[in-house]
Amino acid sequence: MGFIDLHCHILWDLDDGCRSPHETLQAARSLVALGYSDAAPTPHAQPRYGGGDPRVSRERLAQGRALLAREGVALALHPGAENMVGPELRAAIDSGAVRALGDPGRYVLVEVPFEGEAPALADVLSRLGASGFVPVVAHPERCSEFERGGRAEEIVRMGAALQLNLGAVVGRHGPKARELAERFLDDGLYAVACTDLHSPNGAEEWIGEALETLAERAGGACLRRLCEENPRRVLAGRELA
User: Fold this and answer.
1) What percent of the chain has pLDDT over 90?
2) Model-level pTM greater than 0.85?
3) Number of domains in the chain
4) Cα 1 to Cα 229: distance, rounded to the nearest angstrom
5) Nearest Cα to 109, choosing from 45, 53, 58?
6) How far apart are CA 174 and CA 193, in angstroms?
């Protein structure tokens, strides 16, 4: 048992995350040192990245598993993708080709643009729900869409789960993101907390600080629920606590 990271970019050369097998190894070792036992690497499922190709992503996941096994790094890797709200995700829903988290893959990580409104969000969430999926909205505290009062609560009422970027609670994404993260935490809106790790540089230090800060602000039980209990339920396709 251990923490589970459902949002990270540690598979090399798929997007703007880790660039080499060496960086993947460094990132994985940092996660293990911090108490993580599992991770679902979530390459950006966009045509401009290699991670936009499901076949390439599956092959890299297999290569990543083999690399960690060969080097004795005890981090289990699971399927995942970060799906941008837009036409590609709509098409994937319509064709039955949605890239979900884990296996059986009931939960889907959904990304909203950082700037501006996201008018397609409600439609995409409704389509996912109608298709039997539970949307997990990535880092709402970083998106101006959620600066509007009541927007986060509205999305949760629609059946979506919210995912906290751990770095937000220590100011890695700026003061506004930290303010929103603290507000959403205090209101109990988050279902999971993840690293969104892109690079191993300094990872062990800032993630460690973020985990400590989260525990201090929300309590140890909340830390375990967001970083271990609910992520494990996501991977198993079970209801969230």
Assistant:
1) 98
2) yes
3) 1
4) 10
5) 45
6) 17
